[in-house]
Amino acid sequence: MIALQTTLSLLVVLGILVFVHEAGHFLAAKWAGVWVHRFALGIGTPIPGLSFKWRETEYAICWLPLGGYVKMATAEEEATSSALEGGTPDVIVPPDMYFEAKPVWKRMIIILAGVTMNALFAWAVFSGLAIQNGRAFDPETRVGQVDTTAFVPALAPLAQLAPGDSILAVNGTPVHNWGEVIDGIMNGPADTITIAVAGKPEILLAVHPDAVEERATAAQSIASWRPPLIGTVTPGGPASQAGFRPGDLILTVDGIAVPQWWDLTALIEARNGDSVAVQVARGDDQVVLTVVPASRVVSDADGSERTVGMIGVGSRGQVVYEPLTFLEAIGEGFDATLNASTTVVRSVRGMLTGRVSGRNIGGPIAIGQMAAASAEAGLGVFFGFLGIISINLAVLNLLPIPILDGGQFLFLLAEGILRRPLSLKLRERLTVVGLVLVMALMLFAFWNDLSRIFLNLG
Fold it and tell me: Has 56 been annotated as catalytic?
């Protein structure tokens, strides 16, 4: 059942994003007056019964559901692309409607139209979510918890932070909410992250912008201050059976004062299997509830496991929702698109320079699993996931690999400079190299997916 859900989610995500990408090429080709033989979802020849023709173009779903293509009329059919695009239809094409008959600048627009559509789609998605949800942020700038279990040497200075510390600025920019703290750590452009803390020396983290993993670890290692206010109670859990209710404010645990949520977590985790007396404020009353935390094995950030006590309650978030006007939401969507794009670029650079592990490359299984999880979390989360994957698709397609849009653009750029196209034989050879590179990358990503599955099973 899980495998089926993952597969269906993957097909939905790929179907939407490939359609958006190829629609960009298709619309640009039509605008430029290029004859389009086929608009296809999938690679290879069309599946019988899943295609139709309107005017000169065939619209089809093909056998291999990993990608898509817009087959344009060309006077120089390449063997590699012809195989991937199901061969060339036997039709007479007016000479002025061949791809090569158009000026180089028009052909550049056609090649770049796919990634442009993916970026515009992400912008539209992020803007739509901003219109619907507004701007959500945690107004707190005080530190609630510091988790040192996953620290690498560069992050060691974060241990100077203590619960209750107030962060004033990150990278010299004043912060007014926790989102700005995290954004400064994740996206600061300098090689060193600077964190200004009230009453303490400035904290310096020597982490390169392309070391995305280390920056993410730094951001995840600190949490904001939260009041010990219960937001959710797991039905049937120890807290539910003991009489805890949403809205209860925790005052003490076994007589120990609980100033914030993370103190409650630490006290409960340490009392695995023991009877605990918890004093709560409920409206104008104070109630003492007795609960026995259940045992649960959890994994720390460094991968180590430990057994802790849990009672089945969740904190009431301090998230503030600020409604946005249409123009503000458009701006918010643009910022989200730009941040996602730069994160992908930095991740790719980090992998090329060894700052990011290649183990982070996910293949179709990982995408399907994340798509299924986002769909279960709600329509808004699913569309947010679509936007992020769309940006990934746009940036990766711009890589200078001949079979990708970035490589095709370089061919056209060379033609514009040399005033003549590169030889067909050279382009075919480079395309074969590009195809081998892309296939190797896909196999590596697939191997990563399988490795993660078998490690989880183990």
Answer: no
